Protein: Acyltransferase
Amino acid sequence: MTNLHPPLSAASTARNEAIDLLRAIGLVLVMLAHVSPPEWLFQLRNFDVPMLVIAAGMSFALSSAVTQWGAYVWKRFKRLVIPVWVFLAGYFLVLHALNGSAAPDTHTMLSSFFLGSGIGFVWVIRVFLLVALVAPLIAHVDASLPDNRQWLIYWLGLYALSAALLWSISLLVAGTPAARVELITHYLLPYAFVFWLGLRAGRLPDSLLLAIALASAAICGGLALWHAGLVGSFVQTQEFKYPPALYYLSYALPLSIASWFAARPLARYAATQPRLHALVSFVGQNSIWIYLWHIPVVMAFDGTGTAPWYLILIACLLWSVAITALQVQLVNRLLLPRVGPARLRADLRMVLTG
Structure:
């Protein structure tokens, strides 16, 4: 496969820092969703996953070219799935040791390991894994469309075709065991187009990104009025998140693009503040473990009513960042120096940090 990505430059480095900030913001928004904020705030922040997928596309555009699909997929599997398995194994063992009768049952645990509904937090990893499977293909197609107008026509046209395909699949499998295929198809295709937007964003002028945001916002407004007319009140986009439908995505894209516009100057400012810069970089580079470590805090407070949502959010942030920092230090200073084979050290670093 030809080289699909340019070498890193000073501009690319600055862009990477903005992507880290975008990823950090998205991570906070995901945690916010899990602490039961007020309804208006829950709706406002409901663009977190698409924004993280856009950030993944931006990051992929700056990465090295994919020359072997199998090796690339295995690397993504180690970075995305195995950390989840390691965390879940430890988490479930601790729960059973503390209170076996209140611990998740076998079905819930298996569903979690297979990135299903399970305990309710790890489905998003399935999204990133599915998108990773097709990322090299998307990059190859993107590289064949140097003209931005041509790209926009293809992007919109293929999305429309995929929406029609998903509708047809839903009709064919409705009420049958085959309907489980929607857990793959109906997440893979919509998020693949969100990823493609992130992948292309570096070559799109801000004016075109703004036009996409405004057009998407107009679509969202029209759909909001239509749904409100059907039920008599505003319908949250959350209702169309599983799987992601046009109403949900048309809300998420404008806010994601606006966040990207904001992230660039904020990243430049953060670069002048060493501690803030270090924190943003750490969160951006260790987002998966920070995300995983917030789960016990949310689960501990779930349904207890013992603390307001904003204190739970603060606890999630402080705990998850602190425990991840400790984990990274222990891995780098105590574990890795005692591991001989270089390949094993690299794999352990990939799984236990990042």
About this structure: The two ends are 27 Å apart (CA to CA).
